[in-house]
Fold this protein.
Amino acid sequence: MGENMSLGIVIKGPEGLVLAAESRVTLESKFQDGKTLHVNFDNATKLLSFGELNNAVGAVVYGLPAIGFRNVHSFIPEFESNLKSERLSVSDFSNQLSGFFMKQWKIGMSEDYKGPNMTFVVGGFDKGEPYGKVFQFDIPSNPIPKENSPSPGEFGITWGGQREFVDRLIQGFDNKLSDIVAKSLNLNAEQINLLNNELKILQMQIPLNAMSLQDCVDLAIFFLRTTIDGQRLTVGIRGCGGPIDVATITRRDGLNFIQKKKIKGEFQNINEFFEG
């Protein structure tokens, strides 16, 4: 079974939404002597797109990579076959997606499961609305979708999974810092709140309100590539890797992939293997 790995990012900007995810699935194998082996597969699809009627919606999934040993993407044809033949709002679509995967969870997972959630971040446009919407839910612990940045003109970044590098870039510090300081100095609740407020000055200054869709694409790739390279060059579980999939969703054009891995054969360029 996989651990709480991978990395997914959704950016809500003024010109549209950007969804991005890497492609690694990490499976954990435990031996009788107590040792653990992590095995990586780098071709998973964690950026989900849907049929023509709901082409203005997409989703990124991170955390637990599979139900049983079946990945999320493999369930999408079954999910879509049960949808009504009409365009859904982003909220309704999120509820339908959550309900479907809660049902699959109950079928495929044990009742005493205590591992990480499977988290979905759903982004899209409602018909006639000027700005996108982003909803998030966790299977199985928090299945009711909640909207991020509910104000129409409020923009932001949603990220999760192996978020250590992105936390340090955006927040200016590791997410565990305030807990470490509070424990070391025996701070009370008021002092912890004061500390957290003071730490906000370290935040990365990202002017989302002024950023074009291209800038948001560049930013998402930067966070993912930095995480992949950071894990590759340091000691730890390398839960992020493989190709980076990126899509945009706009009011006029719906979802379009900016870069997407392709299924390929053994030889991509025959000249690499034969002369003449």
User: Anything to note?
Assistant: The chain has a mean pLDDT of 92. The chain is about 25% helix and 30% strand.
